[in-house]
Write a structure and sequence with these properties.
Radius of gyration: 19 Å
Shape: globular
Order of helices and strands: HHHHHHHHH
Number of domains: 1
Oligomer: single chain
Number of helices: 9
Strand content: under 5%
Largest sheet: none
Low-confidence stretches: none
Mean pLDDT: 88
Length: about 220
């Protein structure tokens, strides 16, 4: 079997390490953001279920990590109980906390990537400097992609929970008798039709943001 991880490792060990780190770290942070928001909203389910941990195996599970090794995609989960939420809009807030975390991580990675380009020591070996730049760029792109994907109003993504909170008709649709089929169809759409385009957009956006920051603080042209 030509596993994705093996292929990427042979293509570029630095790119593989960057991708593996950022996907796993960003999913863990995404799920913890859901958990922190749920706890602040009065729901102790994340802590009671043992999910308030940094352990990727708890959030992602062996199946997600196996699929990640084979085709390079992964997912996570954070158990919450909306019936415990105190506020009127807590369900939407908890759902939106994950994408918000990815937005924050993406912006931080953009800033660090730009700072590295501007301030990298000239005495550093060129390949090492390039690898560090790739690391921050991948971090920015992965998190922008995770934010965009999770905001899609397709079950079981966070965007569907946010929309369902404010649109009763949509809520009845996804929680009705055809809800499972809608979710399966949504996963197919994400995998075959939307996912690749979202990642292309994310990589383009990350590059544009980093170049924009560098251009704002540099007199030399940015390529």
């Amino acid at each position: 079997m030509n596993w994705w991880a093996s292929s990427l490792w042979h293509q570029s060990p630095a790119l593989f390490a960057s991708w593996a780190f950022w996907v796993i770290f960003s999913i863990v942070m995404h799920e913890l953001a859901h958990g922190w928001a749920a706890l602040r909203s009065g729901d102790d389910t994340p802590r009671a279920a043992g999910h308030m941990t940094w352990n990727p195996m708890v959030h992602m599970g062996p199946m997600s990590l196996l699929v990640f090794a084979i085709i390079g995609i992964a997912w996570g989960a954070m158990p919450v109980n909306p019936s415990n939420f105190r506020g009127r809009h807590d369900e939407a807030i908890v759902a939106g906390a994950g994408p918000a975390m990815n937005l924050g991580l993406g912006l931080v990675a953009c800033l660090l990537g730009a700072a590295w380009i501007l301030a990298a020591p000239g005495s550093l070996a060129p390949h090492l400097s390039d690898n560090i730049r790739v690391f921050f760029f991948v971090g920015a792109a992965v998190n922008i992609a995770l934010m965009l994907l999770n905001l899609l109003p397709i079950p079981p993504l966070d965007g569907s929970r946010i929309l369902a909170h404010y649109a009763d008709g949509y809520r009845r649709l996804i929680h009705g008798e055809h809800g499972t089929m809608i979710a399966l169809f949504g996963l197919v759409v994400i995998f075959y039709a939307v996912g690749g385009r979202v990642f292309e957009l994310a990589f383009s956006a990350a590059g544009s943001i980093i170049r924009g920051i560098v251009g704002a603080f540099s007199v030399a042209p940015v390529t």
